[in-house]
Structure formats: structure tokens, C-alpha cells
Request: fold
Amino acid sequence: MTQLLERAFTVASQLPAPEQDAFASLLLAELDSERRWTDTFAATQDQLSALADEALREFEAGQTQPMDLERDFPNH
Reply:
């Protein structure tokens, strides 16, 4: 365990029980979210690679244009 994580747990362990549970729930939810993101990202590598290849072909064929904040993001 890293020193920072150990320090966070030490501080959290001094909180009242309901706040400890809230902290634990938040941490577990974040870890689960990160795991799901990693799994999803890994499962889409072929699709992402195909999209990147397509974008490169369009760029090389002159079918792209520079981004324009006003045109591309009119509600910013």
C-alpha cells in the first residue's frame, strides 16, 4: 500500500461510522467505474483502430478541414 493511500485510510478511519461508510462506498464505486472503463476501452481497440485508419485516409485524401470553434462548437 502506498503512503498516500495509507494516510487516506488513516484519516478516514477517524471519521464517524456513517462517513466512513460513505467514503468506502465512494471509493468502491470509483474503482468499479475505473475497472469498467478499462474493460470497455480494451474491448474496443479494434474499432478505435479502424476509426483512426479511416480518419487518416480522409485526411490524406483532403476530405478534412481544420477545426473552427465557431462553426464546430456554436454553443460554447
Summary: The chain has a mean pLDDT of 95. The helical segments are 3-13, 17-43, 45-60, 69-72. The two ends are 43 Å apart (CA to CA).
